[in-house]
Amino acid sequence: MRRGQRLVLLNSTWSPESLLGDGADGGDGPGDDVLPALLPRLTSELPADEYRIAAVLHPNIWHGHGPGQIRAWLDRARRSGLALIDPLEDWRQALLAADLVIGDHGSVTYYAAALGTPVLLGAAPLDSLDPDAPIADFIRTAPRLDARSPLRGQVDALIESHVPQPGPMRFTSSVPGEAAVRLRRAFYELMAAPEPSDPALLLPLPPPAPEAAPRTAPLRVLTRFLAGPELAVTRYADPAREPAGTGDAHLAVHEDTRDPGQLDLADVVFRDASPDDPRFGPPGRWAAEVLARHPYCALAAYVTGSSSCVVRTRDGALLRLTAGAEADADPAVYASAVHAWLAAGRTLDALVADGLTVRTGSTAHHVVVTAEVAAPAAGGPRQHPRTDPTAPATPADRSTARAGGADTPRAGRRSPRTGS
Question: Which of 10, 29, 322, 335 has the alpha carbon at shortest distance from 151?
Answer without folding.
Answer: 10
